[in-house]
Amino acid sequence: MIPKLELNRIVVFTGFKERQTMCKKAFTLVEIIVVVVILGIAAMLVIPMGSSAASVQIRSAANTIAADIEYAKSLAITKGAVHSVLFDEANESYSVLDNTGTVVGHPVKKSSDYSIDFQTDNRLSEV
Prior knowledge:
This protein has helices at about 30-50, 55-80; strands at about 5, 10-15, 20, 85-90, 95, 115. It is of the alpha+beta class. The strands form two sheets. Strands 1-2-3 form a three-stranded antiparallel β-sheet, with no helix packed on it. Strand 4 (about 85-90) and strand 5 (about 95) form a beta hairpin.
């Protein structure tokens, strides 16, 4: 009873006659169902993330505006002078101004003015 291996067949000797069985290489129904379930779960996780990109950008824009208003407030307290945030609806932008009405310098980007333009800011393209 020693099986003899050939290419894609297993030949089994049972004593009286030789019986050949073909080896099939395929997926079982259980394996296919498991893969479909995993893909379904992954799709359920990915689809809501893509549709909520606009709401995340709106929340981010609101947080940025709130932080900039807080920055103008802290400038007014530290320097003892009026500072304001001027919103320009027509150009979809705003700037932080000092008491003379000139735009203050950006605290991080030292060489630029503190103006935010929603049209050119790629992070806020959906706003």
